[in-house]
Amino acid sequence: MCSSALNSTCPLFLAVLLLISFTTQSDTITGKVTRIVDGDTLVFLDQEKQQHRVRLAGIDTPERKQPFGKRATENQAQLAGNKHARLEWEKRDRYNRVIGKVLVGGVDINLQQVRDGLAWHYKRYAREQSR
Question: Which of 26, 102, 23 is nearest to 57 (CA)?
């Protein structure tokens, strides 16, 4: 695979490729949504009983005390609260929350919040969203 001219750098090159492949892969966890924090944040309990605080990727909702903030939280509770779900995620934010997409019965909760008019598409992170 590596030519003789590159033999000394070949192991380094392969290590970098391996690292890149691990850092760009997403993880999927199944479990249950145990608590709704607000319109774009929830608590997810995986099958090993580990809790994950999840920030819904690619959307933003009003804060609780802003207009429609309470409604966005209530809508998310109806969509996902106390339901079995699948969490697809790739990274954590600066608050150590998992950034991901939550699916309940095949419904993308992130997208549904936007469709219901209670969240904005977060353009800053659009490149990270699945299509």
Answer: 102
